[in-house]
Sequence to fold (347 residues):
Amino acid sequence: MQELTLLQPDDWHVHLRDEDALAMTVPAAAHSFGRSIVMPNLVPPITKLDQARSYYNRIMEHRPAGSDWQPLMVLYLTDMTTPEDIREAKDSGLIFGCKYYPAGATTNSDSGVTNLHGLGDVFAAMQEVGLVLQLHGEVTDSAVDIFDREAVFIERYLGAIAEQFPQLKIILEHVTTEQGINFVRNSSANVAATITPQHLLYNRNDMLVGGMRPHLFCLPILKRDHHQRALIDAATSGDKKFFLGTDSAPHARHAKEAECCSAGCFSHHAPLELYAEVFEQEDAMQHLEAFASLNGPEFYQLPPNTKKVTLQQQEWNLPATINYGSDELVPLAAGQLVRWRCVPAGV
Ligand code: NCD
Ligand code: ZN
Ligand code: ZN
Fold:
């Protein structure tokens, strides 16, 4: 295969950050995607509609001329979120989902939820108005091993939430385990998962054997190879429940190459190219459009994009570094050879 044309993909999970960072992150998102679900873990977090609206405006200032890329905004759930916040968010038309971060689970999650059971009224309101619940699905219990935190979250909480709110649309964001894949497969059509390029391309050996590679450190942490295998099988199967969410999460090089490494991988330098590597290896390029361009809009009840993009078979080396405000960052698969290149194909 020399060339593959598909409907323009969307990214259902990205971190654009704020201020100076937007000059890099917004054009990068608009380059590859039609729409992006913008995660709200700023400091302070985006917990209210008016904050989301001004963040939306700051983002739009950086949208390249001529682009019709759209940021889809998200509210950050806290112990203080009310059903009124949810109704107001839905009525605005600006908000597409609400993000659950367990307090302390990941980058900028200090204001996250401390007691999931306290959110019953909020989940009921989300179910009623039709806002998607986006889960960072890990427990933070210090007694639970970091490699087990997703599986334990599923066992302790996810089954109960899905059962109690059967009409609530739930996404297990950046799924990393066989347990997560099986849970989603065996649930109703209201439960889905996003899958990142790093969790498809790598497992924990890639991060830890022969020395520790901080640029592969993200949360949930990379798992064993059989979990990676389960993710690859799900993503490349065409199954509607699995779709693209890069979780591209920029951190300056000094924050990664540090005594305490920040969690997150940047992949917006070549997101489709990185996913294409995996689909080609699996001889599943025919399912890339479902994963990247169709399954996500269907779950969010939005129309697919109408523009097209073309992936051409062409070997090229990914950049070793990317400018990031006054810093630089090291992107995913920095300097490595990839076999596909994405070009816009007009309408
Ligand atoms: C994300 C970030 O840097 O904001 N980091 C990560 O490791 N995935 C936060 C998140 O998605 O959990
Ligand atoms: Zn997360
Ligand atoms: Zn994320």
Q: What stands out?
A: The chain has a mean pLDDT of 97.
